[in-house]
Amino acid sequence: MAYLNLAAIRPCTEAEGPGKRFAIWCQGCLRRCPGCCNPHMQPMIRRNLVAVKDLFELIKKHIALDAIEGVSFIGGEPLLQAEGFAELALLCQEVDLSVLLFTGYKYENILESDDDNIRKLLSYTDLLVDGEFIENLLDNKRDWIGSTNQRVIFLTDRYKKGIEYLHGYRTTEMRISSKQISINGWPLLPNQ
Fold first, then answer.
1. What is the mean pLDDT of the segment spanning 138-152?
2. CATH (residue range 3-185)
3. Residue in 81, 62, 165, 116 with CA at minimum distance from that of residue 101
4. Other residues' Cβ atoms within 10 Å of the Cβ of residue 168
5. What DSSP element (H or E) covers 4?
6. This prediction's pTM
7. How many CB atoms lie within 10 A of CB 70?
C-alpha cells in the first residue's frame, strides 16, 4: 500500500471540477508557476503522510455523506506522487467515482514518460487538465481552469466535452468552523 504526502483535502467541494468532488491537494511541486494560488504547497517537504487505504476509507464515507461523484487530484504536482495517486484512482474507479487530474505538465510530455506509475494513473483518469498556470492568461470562461493555455483532455467518455463551461465563471468556496477558516477554488487575485 502506497502513501501520499498531502497539503490539504476538502471532502466535498463544487469548485474543483464537475459536480460534488472530494479534492486532494498534494505537497510538492517543481514547476513554481508565477502567481500560483498554492505557493505553500510547492516546497518538497513532508507535510501530512497518509496511507492510500486510509484516505480511500475517508472518501468512501463521503460518498454516502455528501453524494460525491468524483475525486480531484490537485497540487502541488500530483505526477510527483504518481504511485500513490494511481493506486487511489483505481480504488475510486472501482466504486464508480470519476477521477480528475490537474497537472502542470503537458499531456504530450506525460505520454513520453517511461514511469509505469504515471501511465497507470492516466489509465484511471477521466479528465486531465494539463499545462502550467500562466498568470497573465487567466481564464474567466471555464469553471475550474486557471489559465487559457490549460487544456481539458477527456480520457474517457464519462463527461461530455464542454462541461468546463457549464457555469461560465470560477468559484470560490469558504468554510468556517470553530477551528479554522478555509478557502478553495479561485480566490480573487489583484486587479480582477
1. 91
2. 3.20.20.70
3. 81
4. 10
5. strand 3-13
6. 0.90
7. 24
